[in-house]
Design brief:
Specific class of high-redox-potential 4Fe-4S ferredoxins. Functions in anaerobic electron transport in most purple and in some other photosynthetic bacteria and in at least one genus (Paracoccus) of halophilic, denitrifying bacteria. It holds the Pfam family HIPIP. There is one protein chain. The protein is an alpha+beta fold. The chain has one domain: Irregular (High-Potential Iron-Sulfur Protein, Chain A), CATH 4.10.490. A 3-stranded mixed sheet has the order 1-3-2, covered by helices on one side. A hairpin with a 6-residue loop joins strand 2 and strand 3. The longest helix is centred in the N-terminal third of the chain and has 25 residues. The chain starts with 5 loop residues before the first helix and ends in a 13-residue tail after the last strand.
Length: 97
């Protein structure tokens, strides 16, 4: 097994961080269409554009992307789709913090 020296580790870490950042930007750029309730993935996860679960909305879910305050934002669960910030689905997980 080859050991990784400090310099190689830092290069790899920096490259990974840049890749993750650009990947997040790409996700936001590609997501242009709003998720519809009749979409097969939305149906499978019981997505609704207006949450009926107290304290649980897409806006406070760990999978939501984009800037706070935007009404429709990208979501890691629904690639290339925008979800309503006030929506909910069964994949909802409270955002840490």
């Amino acid at each position: 097994m080859k050991s990784v020296n400090r310099r190689d580790f830092l290069k790899l870490s920096g490259t990974s961080l840049i890749g993750l950042t650009l990947g997040s930007v790409a996700l936001r750029a590609n997501a242009q269409e709003q998720l519809q309730a009749d979409d097969p993935s939305a149906k499978a996860l019981n997505y609704t554009a207006a949450s009926t679960v107290d304290g649980a909305k897409c806006n406070n879910c760990m999978y939501i992307q984009g800037a706070d305050g935007e009404q429709h934002r990208p979501c890691a669960i629904f690639p290339n789709k925008l979800v309503n910030a006030n929506g909910w689905c069964s994949a909802w997980v409270k955002r840490p913090g």
